[in-house]
Target: Septum formation initiator
Amino acid sequence: MWTLAVSLWVAIVIVGSAVTWLAIDRAGQQVTGRPSASETKPPVVGTLGPAPVASALPSTPSPSSPAHTRTPTARPSRTPSSTAPPSARPTGSGPTKQASPSTKTAAPAQRIETRTWTGSAGFVTVSCTGSLATLKGASPADGWSYERGDDSGDSVEVKFTNGGTEVQVHATCVGGTPQFHVESGSSADEVG
Model:
C-alpha cells in the first residue's frame, strides 16, 4: 500500500513538472519571439504502424474499388487525440495499404531560422525563410527611439536614435540564417 502511494505521488510530481515546464516554455516563446527547439526541427511525415482508421473500414473489397487505396497522413499535432480526425479517412471503400518508404512525399517545408541582434541601442529580431528576411520585432533601449525601414524582402532595416547618436541595423539572409550588419556613426561591425 505504501509503495502504491509513493508511486502515485511520483507520477503526480512528474506530470505536474511537465505541465509547468510546458507553460513556462510557451510563455517564454511569446515574450522573446524565439521558437523552441522542437519548432525549428523539420516536421515528421508519415506514421509508424497501421493507420488508425484502418479498423473502421470494411475488410472485403468491393468489385469497383482498386486493390489498395493510399491513406492520407495527417501532420502531427501538439495535443494528443484519441480518435483520428474525419479528414484522415480514405475516400475508397476497399482495404488500405500504408505507403511504402519509396512512395513520393511532399517536399519538406522550408526551414525558418530566427535570430536576434542585441546592442546598447535595443534589439532586433529577424526570421529567414530561405532568402526572405522578415522583421519579427524591434525595441529600443531606455533613452533610444527607433524607426522601422524595410519589414521584409531581401533585407530589413531598423534605425535607432538617441540625441545625435544613430545606430542602423541591417539584416539579410545568408544560407537561410539572419546575418546582421550594424552601422554606428563612422564605425561598422559585422555581427552574425
